[in-house]
Amino acid sequence: MGSEHEIAVIIPTYKACGHVLGVIAQIGSEVSRIYVVDDACPDDSGEFVRRHCLDPRVSIIRHSQNLGVGGAVMTGYQAAMADGMDILVKIDSDGQMDPALIAQFVAPILHGEADYTKGNRFFDLEKIRSMPMVRLLGNAVLSLMCKLSSGYWHLFDPTNGYTAIHADAARRLPFNKISLRYFFETDMLFRLNTLRAVVVDVPMEAKYGDEVSHLRISKIVGEFFAKHVRNFIKRIFYNYYLRDMSLASIELPMGLVLTVFGVIYGSYHWINSANVGVTTPAGSVMLSALPILMGVQLLLAFLSYDISSTPKRPVHRKKVTQ
Fold first, then answer.
1. Is residue 1 a part of any domain in this protein?
2. Which one of 109, 182, 224, 268 has the minimum C-beta count within 10 Å?
3. What gap in Å lies between CA 65 and CA 40, rounded to an integer?
4. Residue 33 belongs to what H/E stretch?
5. Residues in contact with 143: Cβ distance below 8 Å, sequence separation at least 6, in sequence order
6. Does residue 216 form part of some domain?
7. Same structural domain for residues 144 and 279?
8. What proportion of the chain, given as a percentage, has pLDDT over 90?
9. Given strand 87-90, what is the order of strands in its sheet?
10. Which pLDDT score is estimated for 260?
């Protein structure tokens, strides 16, 4: 890892005084700056770090009001970019993320293979047995929704907060539009796709100790579903009608129209025939079945195109060693 690249670590803190010092202590020498963002923590974690941490790389940033994890990360991003940092790594303060993995998260960006990397706790099927079942199932559902809304079909574990991003890509993000709280990580993926940024999963193993998670999957699935639907509609409009048009731009609406027509037409005649006690005419069955079959084929063709159009060329400028 070349010294010409300045790496920063952003650590949002909220009720994590019992773990944050241990996290900072494990951050290696490849990191130039560490930004601890106290998100209006009731335990005053920022002051706690200031009093007990002697690492000269650490800068403390305090929020006057709680903005959520997304707000804290974006504050850290802006501070790091203002200081000229090249790569911005975000890790949590609860000790679940191993700082020794920073080099693995940064490597694809340094090699010009990605703009953004994120952790994937599902990569090793043997190790995910240690993950609580509720969290495992919840993340599987959220991953499926995220694939649809973000367009990154090859990614999994969208709520994973261990991430790294190149400053060039971060500067293009609309910070004022990104979700501030728990939807932050998945909303970031949607925003990155609108930039055509390359995103890569990095295998990792999560650690579960005595830390308390503030995320309750059962409480946010409904909220996440609504936001995923919103992002899906926006992404389709941006990528297939506003920015560019292709055969897929025709396949999607035609597929929807034919499928909906077939279902409504068939349902109407089936219900009507059932009410009068006669068999549905073969012609009505065909007029219902054919549009459905054609519509599903068009929708599958659109889906195939969407999966194959995942961004492959990084948007950031690779720094060249003199």
1. no
2. 268
3. 5
4. strand 33-38
5. 122, 155, 156, 157, 158
6. yes
7. no
8. 64
9. 58-62, 33-38, 7-13, 87-90, 163-166, 116-120, 199-203
10. 96
pLDDT at position 218 is 58
Whether 155 and 147 have beta carbons less than 8 Å apart is answered as: yes
Q: Helices 133-150 and 184-194 sit at what angle, rounded to 10 degrees?
A: 20
Sign of the torsion formed by the C-alpha atoms of 215, 219, 220 and 221: positive
- How much of the chain is helix, strand and coil, in % rounded to 5? 50, 10, 40
Q: Which of 205, 207, 200 is nearest to 124 (CA)?
A: 205
Confidence of residue 29 (pLDDT cuts 50, 70, 90): very high
Domain extent for 57? 7-240
- What DSSP string describes 53-120? ---TTEEEEE-SS--HHHHHHHHHHHHHHHTT-SEEEE--SSS-S-GGGHHHHHHHHHTTS-SEEEEE
- Specify whether 254 is located in the same domain as 224: no
Structure token digits, residue 176: 């004022």
Per-residue model confidence (pLDDT) at position 322: 41
* 272 domain residue, yes or no: yes
Give, in degrees to the nearest 5, the angle at Cα 218 between 217 and 224.
65
In sequence order, the 6+-apart residues with CB closer than 8 A to the CB of 207 are 95, 96, 97, 98
DSSP state of 244: -
Tokens representing 95 are 């000790």
Of 197, 188, 190, nearest to 169 by C-alpha is: 197
| Number of domains composing the chain | 2
Q: By C-alpha distance, which of 108, 210, 84 is closest to 163?
A: 108
- pLDDT value, residue 15: 87
Q: SS3 for 185?
A: helix
Among residues of the chain, what percentage have pLDDT more than 70?
91
